Amino acid sequence: MKKLAILASGSGTNAEKIMEFFKNSDKGEVTLLASNKGDAYALERAKKFGVPTFTFSKTEMEDGLVLEKLQDAGIDWIILAGFLLKIPESLILAFPERMVNIHPALLPKFGGKGMYGMNVHQAVKDAGESHTGITIHLVNENFDEGKIIFQAATEIDPSDDPEAIAAKVHRLEHQYFPEVIESLL
């Protein structure tokens, strides 16, 4: 059974879906959730599942403390679920092709630094796109440029505002992210 760690910066709805999914999996289990924000609601969601947590600063991540904690916990895979910091090269090298992220758009469109959450959905709306979706990809040294593993799309109605687009994207995230992670294990 593979040990999974989730890195999250926000409310943690994807993290919760992943923890819920893997509580009944024979392929993997979430054994740790870590956040760069002490007030991230993802930390509370982890408590519901009895998943240990820790918080860290950007400096602690860059200095190797996070890598050390992940290695000490015997982590096999890292899952980024709404995690907003750039991953340092040392962490990428320690988990080659074993770190996966989800992006709330169909990459390569609407990716890169600053393209997260409502920023993405607003950009999609402003561009007049007829479709958007999710991209699940491996993590490399550049924002949103790792090997694409899976994409799913949804239609956008011209009357959809960014919040409506976000709701459609969240449904795709919750439906597919846990299953795609399990398939990678």
From TrEMBL:
What Gene Ontology molecular function terms does this protein carry?
A: phosphoribosylglycinamide formyltransferase activity
Which residues make up the binding site for N(1)-(5-phospho-beta-D-ribosyl)glycinamide? G12, T13, N14
Which EC number(s) are documented for this chain?
A: 2.1.2.2
Database matches in InterPro entries: Formyl_transf_N, Formyl_transf_N_sf, GART
Q: A Pfam family matched by this chain, by name?
A: Formyl_trans_N
The protein's UniProt keywords, in alphabetical order, are: Purine biosynthesis, Transferase
Which residues catalyse the reaction?
Answer: H103
Q: Which residue ranges does the record assign to the Formyl transferase N-terminal domain?
A: 2-181
Q: In which pathway does it act?
A: Purine metabolism; IMP biosynthesis via de novo pathway; N(2)-formyl-N(1)-(5-phospho-D-ribosyl)glycinamide from N(1)-(5-phospho-D-ribosyl)glycinamide (10-formyl THF route): step 1/1
Where is the site labelled Raises pKa of active site His? D144
Q: Tell me the domain of life.
A: Bacteria
Report the sequence similarity comment from the record: Belongs to the GART family.
Q: What does this protein do?
A: Catalyzes the transfer of a formyl group from 10-formyltetrahydrofolate to 5-phospho-ribosyl-glycinamide (GAR), producing 5-phospho-ribosyl-N-formylglycinamide (FGAR) and tetrahydrofolate.
Put simply, this protein is called Phosphoribosylglycinamide formyltransferase
